[in-house]
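Continuing the series of single-chain predictions for the mutant panel. This is the parent chain; the variants come on the following pages.
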Amino acid sequence: MPDIPLIVLAVVFLGAGGSKLAGVPLIRANFERWGLPDAARLGIGAIEVVLAVLAVLALGDDGLARVVAVAALVVMAGALATHVRAKDEPKEYPPAVLVTVAAILVLATA
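Parent structure:
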């Protein structure tokens, strides 16, 4: 059962998505620096919050857990590509790497 990695996904996505939707100044500044519109921040934030809810609902449901994991990998591919394209410093990568590892663990155990 992939319960622990799903809980990690839920917590990280709720925090990340919530801060995007709330318009935390640092998050707004990052999206501006990356050349992404405000609508992208809100859309990605909404997707992340939905994934957080789905991750909780997936506890005990391996099929839904796999769907959440694949969706998380897609979102993180975009996040990592954005960091690479922006030539961000390595200190910016750990959250995306953590979520990627958690999603892979879900796929490996669901």
